[in-house]
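Thanks for the sequence, V.! I ran Porin right away. Repeating your input here for the record:
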Amino acid sequence: MKKTLLAAALLAGFATAGVAQAETSVTLYGILDTGYGYQNYKFDRGTADITAKSSGLRDGTFNGSRWGLKGAEDLGDGLRAIFQVEAHVNLGGSGGDAHSGFNRQSFVGLSSDNWGTFTMGRQYSAGTAVFQGPNGVNLGDADKVFGATGLGGGTRVDNSFKYVTPDLSGFQAIVLYGTGGDDGTTVGRNTDGSSFDDRGNRVSVGASYTNGPIGVGASYDRQSQYGVDTTGESRSAASSWVLSGSYDFEVVKLGLAYGQDRHGKIGWNGSAAGIVGGSVTEGTGMVNALATSGQPLTLNNNFKSNNYHVGLSAPVGGGTLYAGWNYSTSNLDDAVADGGWGDAAGNISTYQVNYFYPLSKRTGVYTYASYGKNIGYVKDLKGTEAGVGINHKF
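Predicted structure:
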């Protein structure tokens, strides 16, 4: 009798699970990317002669290592409830609090075949989806000169509301608004003594059009900033726009991009402090030495930049060969008296060649080599990188 009751309960459970499965789907996914890498950064201008280098295990080169869950529930009439939570994974075994929880993405919302998708949570800005053309990795990534592209993950927006239109014959638009993390309380004072509020609000809009071999994308971001600049005035909102395009000639795919930043670079992954200090064993010491030697590392309130990207990819030997160049000019070479860095500033140039070879639909191996000059606009700060690795998706 007990066995009969147990069998009935199990059958009922399986039946219930079958009904739920028909209405709801949840997918476990992830990317594991790691390998060996070498990095060497040098600064040898004037009386300063500083070197920082490192070699060993490198995590998240072609893709940031991650795992996540995403799901959808069919609500009928083409409407679905959707969610996604995604966490960082460090295959090197370290990470600490910065890599805990679902810090990459976490959102929930509704999606309709006819009306598009609306989500709320921590999610990517518009530039991630609309940037067109082949791109490099690490030091060769376009986000080393562009702000707000989202290519390096620096432009995920907390507390944000996002709407994506359905695909309309190749055209798609994105609107995002982030409310920031502050509750509107006083965060600083103007030179006249009056207080000012700054909620850190973020606006991000973008659009893309794809048709056969042609791809075009455009994005605009505006981020209000906390605090005051060096003169004591409240900081102006930072803004960034990027226009990108690509064309696939079959034998080679060409990608071009141009953009401008004002009053800072939103979500920038290219500062000298971030690249050197974040990836090289002796990096923190080098960043401190640069500051001690009089090399500025922070952008001023009057900052302006013009950014360029050229990327080429081609199928070679069963894999994909990439070559790219990124370049950025700025007004940081203005005189120190005018708020610039003077002779301490230079224009950024980065170059990269990489090759990715798929072993299967989910697993591939890669190699890359990069060179950068005037990294983070710090004149005569140079860097080289090279490495090999494996990338597995599940």
